[in-house]
From TrEMBL:
Record CDD domains: AKR_AKR5G1-3
Pfam family, one: Aldo_ket_red
Coiled coil: none
Protein family per UniProt: Belongs to the aldo/keto reductase family.
NADP-dependent oxidoreductase domain location: 31-267
Protein name in UniProt: Oxidoreductase YtbE
Keywords: NADP, Oxidoreductase
Gene3D superfamilies: NADP-dependent oxidoreductase domain
Length: 280
C-alpha cells in the first residue's frame, strides 16, 4: 500500500506508475494551469493526467518543461498520461492524434496513452494503433478509459496486448465492484477519475464523520479509501492549498470498518456519462 506521494504500482508490463497524481479536466490553457502543475511537481507529485479533449496539452507541456528546469528532475521522473478522443478513433486517425498530443505537450514519448471512451465499432482499430505505438517505444504503457467489463472482454478477444490501465469514474457512490474485481483478476490497474465526485461528496455526513475521527478532511478520507482499494487516483485542483491537502493522505490508514462504511454508500450513481449510453 502506498506510503508516500511518490510510491508506485507496477503495471503488468513492469512499468511503474505513481499511485497518486494530478488531473487537469476542465482547466483551460493558461497561467493558472501552468502554476498549478508546477506547484504540484514542487510539492512532490510525479503524475499528470490530461487528454486531447481537455484542450490544455500545450499548457501542461509548458508546465512540465518549467517544472523540470526549476526542480532539476529528469523527464523520466514524471509520469504523463493523455487520451485519444472519440472523433479520432481508428487506426490511422489514432496514430495522428497521438502525434498531435505529443507535439502539443512538447514531449518525445508518453508514459501512458488511453482510449478515452469505448465507441462501439471503433475502439478495436484504435487499440491496434496503441499497440503499434507501444511496440515502437513511443509510449511506455497503453490502456483504456471508461471501459466496462464487456468492453474489456470484447477488446481482449482481438488484442495482442492487454490494457495496462482502465481509468473510470470511481468514488464512494460508484464503487464499481464488479469492474474492480475483473481488472484485479486480469492484472489491469484501475484508476479513478472524479474521485471526489466533482466535490459533491465533501459534505457527505458519513464521510465527514469518519474524517472527524481521523482528524482529516472529507477529501483526504475519500482519496485514502481509493488507495486502500488499490485504485490509482488523480484528483483535480488548481488551488495550491487543495493540491497540498489532497496529497496529505499517506500518514494515516482507514480501519477496515470505516472502509466498509464508505463501501456501503454505493448507489451506482454517476456524475459523468454512462459508458454504455453516450453519444459523442
Amino acid at each position: 500500500m502506498a506510503k508516500h506521494l511518490q510510491d508506485t504500482t507496477e503495471l503488468h508490463n513492469g512499468v511503474r506508475m505513481p499511485w497518486f497524481g494530478i488531473g487537469v479536466f476542465q482547466v483551460e490553457e493558461g497561467d493558472e494551469l501552468v502554476q498549478a502543475i508546477k506547484f504540484a511537481v514542487n510539492h512532490g507529485y510525479r503524475s499528470i493526467d490530461t487528454a486531447a479533449i481537455y484542450k490544455n496539452e500545450a499548457s501542461v507541456g509548458q508546465a512540465i518543461r518549467e517544472a523540470l528546469a526549476e526542480t532539476g528532475l529528469a523527464r523520466e521522473e514524471l509520469f504523463v498520461t493523455s487520451k485519444v478522443w472519440t472523433a479520432d478513433l481508428g487506426y490511422e486517425q489514432t496514430l495522428a492524434a497521438f502525434d498531435t498530443s505529443l507535439n502539443k505537450l512538447g514531449l518525445d514519448t508518453l508514459d501512458l496513452y488511453l482510449i478515452h471512451w469505448p465507441v462501439k465499432g471503433k475502439y478495436k482499430e484504435a487499440w491496434r494503433a496503441l499497440e503499434t505505438l507501444y511496440k515502437q517505444g513511443r509510449v511506455r504503457a497503453i490502456g483504456v478509459s471508461n471501459f466496462q467489463v464487456h468492453h474489456l472482454e470484447d477488446l481482449m478477444q482481438d488484442a495482442e496486448i492487454k490494457p495496462m490501465v482502465n481509468q473510470v469514474e470511481f468514488h464512494p457512490l460508484l464503487t464499481q465492484e464488479k469492474l474492480r474485481s475483473y481488472c484485479r483478476e486480469h492484472g489491469i490497474q484501475l484508476e479513478a477519475w472524479s474521485p471526489l465526485m466533482q466535490g459533491q461528496l465533501l459534505n457527505h455526513p458519513v464521510i465527514m464523520e469518519i474524517a472527524g475521527k481521523y482528524g482529516k478532511t472529507a477529501a483526504q478520507v475519500i482519496l485514502r479509501w481509493d488507495l486502500q482499494h488499490g485504485v490509482v487516483t488523480i484528483p483535480k485542483s488548481t488551488k495550491p492549498s487543495r493540491i497540498a491537502e489532497n496529497a496529505d493522505v499517506f500518514d494515516f490508514e482507514l480501519a477496515p470498518e470505516d472502509v466498509g462504511r464508505i463501501d456501503r454508500l454505493n448507489e451506482d450513481r454517476r456524475v459523468g456519462p454512462d459508458p454504455d449510453n453516450f453519444d459523442f
